[in-house]
Every structure is written in structure tokens, then in C-alpha cells.
């Protein structure tokens, strides 16, 4: 990893923990004005929380949040692709911006999402390869959000391992993957790849605080470098309290974290 990438990742990862709480808010392009991200003004009310290490968003939202002063001391990740769920092919993400736009916005990294449905592998891998090549010219780290919509366990684990390895082969610096329901399967999925790439786990379907924090705890023990959670953060009524707990868990700080999870697991 070159110096530019290390410097930029240093704005995203905790200095001591080398982990991060990343909050994607790119959902608006796909799903519209969800609760918590109805407008940039609404986002600006909570995104400043110190528990948020980095933000992923599309170019229009990043520029407006910057105008609000809401991105100060945050890692900034520009999302490169997407597709509205009003489309009949929401899994087929399209390029929507450029690497150069990330530089103009002062982004520390770029991200893209690839959903595999068994029909779009060719286009997905071409997109990842192009993103990595373009970002490498400027020392920008690349986060690949990787979702597999084919197969069931244990086939899904074998497929996920192969998909992650392909992304590593193409040069991605970080991956976002789903947590899954069984901790041992996540451990198996990460055992070979975690030394080559930073892995962050998604929040998945909307769930309560305790189950989510327990899932995060399992993921960290399996080798994940943190979380990349959107809806399970920004729709919460107790958002600031939850962010404090989540950040404490991810960074191993004083915000209750592991101690609470251990107590909850024996109740």
C-alpha cells in the first residue's frame, strides 16, 4: 500500500484500533428519502456524532453536507455507482460519477456496490477492475460492497469466499459483506481473506440494538475491521446512544461494548 492510501485510510480507521464505524447514506438514490436521511439538513443533525468515523454518500449529498459543515473530522467516501429500485434491474448498478469527482470533493476513498444475481458477473467484475485502476492512479482506497444473491448455505459461504478472493485479485482495498446468521460461517468466510483486505460487515435487515451489537461482536472476533451500517443506525430513535455503544464495541473503548454483550449472552 502506497503512502497516499495509508494517509487516507488513516482518516477513516481509528489510530489505535485500526477499525472503523462507517455509515453509508447512499440509500436515498436507491430507495428515496428514508427516515433519518430525508434531507441533508436532517442528516447533518446526527452525522456529526463522534461515533461515526466515516460516511459513504453520492456526490450530491456529500457536497451539500460539506456546505453544512457536517463532514468535519470525518472520513469521506464517494459512492461511484447505483440504481433506483424503481428500475426492473436494481441489481445492475451503473457508473454514476468519476474518480476525478472524488478528488474534487476531497474524498478519502471511493466505494461501489456489486450485487451478484447469476447473470451480471461479467459487468460487475469489469466495474470493480475499472474502479481499482482509476483509483490507483491517485492513491485512493477502494471499498467494494459485495452482495451475493445466489445459493444457500453452505454453498453461499463457498461462493462468498470465491467472490471475495476475486475482488482481492482485482485489487480492492476493503470489502463490505453481510454478517449472516451463524457466527461460525462468518469466521470460516473470513479466515483466508482478512490478512489481504479490510472487511467491514453490513447491518442487514432492521433489528434491535442487542441482536445487532451481538452480531457485530461476533464479526469483530471473526476478524472484521468494523462495520458499514446504514439503516440500522439512521432510523433509530435512540441514535446517539446507539452510536456511542457501537463505537465503544468496535474500538474497544469505554462505551459499554463487549461487557454488555457478554452479560446479554448469559441472560
UniProtKB/TrEMBL annotation:
SUPFAM superfamilies from the UniProt entry: Aldolase (SSF51569)
Source organism of the structure: Stigmatella ashevillensis
Top-level taxon of origin: Bacteria
Name listed for the protein in its UniProt record: Aldolase
InterPro entries xref list: Aldolase_TIM (IPR013785), DeoC/FbaB/LacD_aldolase (IPR002915), DeoC/FbaB_aldolase (IPR050456), FbaB-like (IPR041720)
Amino acid at each position: 500500500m502506497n503512502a497516499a492510501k495509508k494517509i487516507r485510510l488513516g482518516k477513516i480507521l481509528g489510530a489505535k484500533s485500526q477499525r472503523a464505524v462507517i455509515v453509508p447514506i447512499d440509500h436515498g438514490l436507491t430507495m428515496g428519502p428514508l427516515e433519518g436521511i430525508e434531507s441533508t439538513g436532517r442528516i447533518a443533525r446526527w452525522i456529526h456524532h463522534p461515533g461515526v468515523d466515516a460516511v459513504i454518500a453520492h456526490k450530491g449529498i456529500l457536497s451539500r453536507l460539506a456546505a453544512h459543515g457536517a463532514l468535519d473530522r470525518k472520513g469521506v467516501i464517494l459512492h461511484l455507482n447505483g440504481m433506483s429500485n424503481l428500475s426492473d434491474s436494481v441489481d445492475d448498478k451503473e457508473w454514476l460519477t468519476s474518480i476525478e469527482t472524488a478528488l474534487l470533493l476531497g474524498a478519502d476513498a471511493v466505494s461501489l456496490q456489486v450485487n451478484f444475481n447469476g447473470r451480471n458477473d461479467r459487468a460487475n467484475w469489469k466495474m470493480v477492475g475499472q474502479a481499482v485502476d482509476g483509483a490507483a492512479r491517485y492513491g485512493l482506497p477502494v471499498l467494494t460492497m459485495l452482495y451475493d444473491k445466489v445459493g444457500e448455505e453452505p454453498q453461499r459461504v463457498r461462493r462468498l469466499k470465491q467472490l471475495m478472493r476475486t475482488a482481492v485479485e482485482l485489487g480492492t482495498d476493503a470489502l463490505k459483506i453481510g454478517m449472516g446468521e451463524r457466527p461460525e460461517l462468518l469466521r470460516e468466510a473470513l479466515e483466508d481473506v482478512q490478512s489481504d483486505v479490510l472487511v467491514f460487515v453490513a447491518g442487514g435487515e432492521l433489528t434491535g440494538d442487542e441482536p445487532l451489537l451481538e452480531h457485530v461482536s461476533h464479526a469483530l472476533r471473526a476478524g472484521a475491521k468494523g462495520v458499514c451500517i446504514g439503516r440500522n443506525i439512521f432510523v433509530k430513535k435512540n441514535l446517539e446512544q446507539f452510536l456511542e455503544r457501537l463505537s465503544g464495541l468496535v474500538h474497544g473503548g469505554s462505551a459499554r461494548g463487549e461487557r454488555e454483550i457478554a452479560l446479554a449472552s448469559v441472560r
